[in-house]
Amino acid sequence: MSHSVTSIIIRREYMERVTKKSFIVTTILVPILMLVLALLPTAIMLFATGDTKTIAVVDDSGLILPNLQSTDDVKFIDAWAPQDQMLSNDSIYGVLVIDRNIIKRNSGLKLLTPNAASVNIEAEITGQVEKIIETEKLKAYDIENLDEILSEINTDVTLQTIRTDESGEEGESQSAAISSAIGTILNFVLYMFLLMYGSLVMNSIIEEKNNRVLEIVVSSINPRSLMLGKIVGVGLVALTQIAIWAIIMFGITTLLLPSLIPADVMAEAQSINSGTADMASVAMDSDIAMALGMFTNVGFVMKIMGLMLLFLIGGYLIYASIFAAIGASVDNIQDASQLQTIGIIPIFIGLFSSLAVIADPNSTFAMVMSLIPFTSPMVMMARVPFDVPGWQIWLSLALLYLTIIFMIWLAAKIYRIGIFMYGKKPTFKDLIRWARYK
Amino acid sequence: MLLKVNEVSKTFTGHQALDKVSLEVPRGSIYGLLGPNGAGKTTLIRIITHITAPDSGTVLFDGHPLTAADTTSIGYLPEERGLYKKMKVGEQAMFFARLKGLSKRDAEQRLRAWFDHFGISDWWNKKVSELSKGMAQKVQFIVTVLHEPKLLIFDEPFSGFDPLNAQLLKDEILRLRDNGATIIFSTHNMSSVEEICDSFTLINKSHNILSGRVTDVKHEFAQGRYDFTIQGDTTKLIPALMPMVESHSFLDMDNGRTRLSVKLLPEVALHDAIAAVNNNSTLVGFSENLPTMNDIFISAVNKANQQ
């Protein structure tokens, strides 16, 4: 009987929230907002390019101009007229004046332009000019076989790209930057959900106690079932929201991304997944290639999603029971603020530990924090995108779920007493005392 | 007996709410649960409704020890009433009905009937926050009685109602009793106890200080109090009656009559007193002066507090 009654509670909690306008709005708006945020840089880049800037070069040294290479962004031309005339020409972005002794002086490079300074153009010019000067300086040493040496130096440049890839183990390509990014995102999602849905449970209990519905409800159902029903009901709301978001995300990655990304890029991403790709031969930026590889790797995504779900549910249950006990003990939200810290502090510790852990995912600190049940959901999810030994994940999950059983038991004891306590602002000590009641 | 509470005690941190309280509620009766604020009534009700467990003592419901399953046979209308503000009236009523174990169909059918009966069918889709206090209480009353429980517990059911609706509610409570329900009725309103209660118990400072049938207790508390109505002169009466009474008072009535209220000394026989009055004045009326429940409440509580 109590099972069916609990299901009635769950149903009510669930329906009340899922049918709320605010729930529907946030559920739909958040992914759209995230999508916009994700696409914004790309969109800006798309609009920003296509506009090639022409720079007239006045090269007094005679060494730089022949080696300057025009790109999509900048086109270098020899100045055919005096500076002033060139500058008044609308098709000329600016005039680059190169000093006769630039190679010796390391200075004497001036860009005259009526336009606002552009970081991209400055970087392009200095980058190219630096290289040219370096080469010229080397030439001054009269080294034999200089061309060969230079080409070797060029090979070194390619080797640098490979160096970042060395963090990938056993041929499985991985990028610390991407892993950190994924870890950070997962971490913030967890943080948001634990705090948001934890306090939702608390507020709902306070409200029920405040308007005295509680008394009627507990005359039909025992307080423990009521508390569990509430936690499960609100938890299902959270899962619904995540499920909707996941479906939207899944739709974007499987349907939208492949159609947006050119076929050869996809092929490269796939070859990264299968481990056959020689990173040196990948044409595009290696981080982007790696990210594509990870996101289009179904196994990896499933592993992350599965673990995320387990840790999210586990973390939610722990914090929801803490917040439920707090909610039951106080008369109104104002009184709750002090006790709330019992729930909020571990969440913050989890969040900040995770940020440290992302920087060094295999430290002892990282391991310990990802095993302690109160911080483990967040810290472990920060580590999972990097390779974590399987036994640690399973141990962490086992500890987490064992603690949940204990926390729910404890919360139910406090809840049972707390809901009938009115008019007194309880302290942490009171909660402990209530938990000890038979 | 539908309900037998036997020596129930309950202590909260440093405060004894109930101390060996016993009471027996006869089947099909309306039972008053009376007592000053903080006497322990709510705690007792919570024990009877299986919300909290007693530290010691037993509660027998319908012949067996009270269990969680019995909550479907009990309906409780708490003094502090509340409904989920954001839910619709109908939805909410359905929720509570389902909690009491009614099937969806049964619940809806019965609710519709009750809503019709109270003339509030058009509230079904209203939000609770749109209802007035009295309206919400009507809904709450329906929710309490809907599952046709054997035992109904009303805590101050009339508070917040206008006289018209209070009468409506009173009639409903009597009808429920006539249909076989047993009703525990907790209130501070002593006149309503007199009107509808068959028996009662008075709890003071966690003790049961007085129980019994309303009429029996009234007679017990009367203790030789009588009213004589006398036409005309009363001067001869006083010396004749004085040796027989503990106390007396006169009240002049406007048609030349006087109301004489007396409390007889314990050893004086009633017929001697009547004879004394009759022989010395023109006696036109006589009645036993029964105390009101209000008097009984006050004198019982005062007496208990002095001990």
Structure description:
The complex is a heterodimer of chains A (438) and B (307). In chain A, α7 packs antiparallel against α9, α7 packs parallel to α12 and α12 packs parallel to α16 (390-418). Chain A folds into two domains: 53-165, Periplasmic binding protein-like II (D-Maltodextrin-Binding Protein, domain 2, 3-Layer(aba) Sandwich); 175-436, no CATH class. Chain A has helices at 2-18, 21-48, 83-88, 102-105, 119-140, 146-165, 176-210, 213-218, 223-260, 263-273, 286-295, 298-329, 333-359, 364-369, 376-383, 390-418, 428-436, and strands at residues 53-59, 74-78, 94-98, 109-112. Chain A has 438 residues and is mainly alpha-helical. Chain A is elongated. In chain A, strands 2-1-3-4 form a four-stranded mixed β-sheet. In chain A, 70% of the residues lie in helices and 5% in strands. The longest helix of chain A has 38 residues, at 223-260. Chain B folds into two domains: 3-218, 3-Layer(aba) Sandwich (Rossmann fold), CATH 3.40.50.300; 225-288, Alpha-Beta Plaits (2-Layer Sandwich). Chain B contains ten helices and 14 strands. Chain B is of the alpha/beta class and 307 residues long. Chain B has helices spanning 41-48, 89-99, 104-117, 133-145, 163-178, 190-196, 214-222, 237-241, 270-280, 293-306; strands at residues 3-12, 15-25, 30-34, 56-61, 64-65, 74-77, 151-155, 182-186, 199-204, 207-213, 225-231, 245-252, 257-264, 282-288. In chain B, β9 (199-204) and β10 form a beta hairpin. The chains are: A mainly alpha (438), B alpha/beta (307). Chain A binds chain B through residues 1-2, 5, 8-9, 12, 16, 208, 211-222, 420, 433, and chain B through 13, 46, 49-52, 68-69, 71-72, 74, 76, 78, 80-87, 95-96, 98-101, 140, 143.
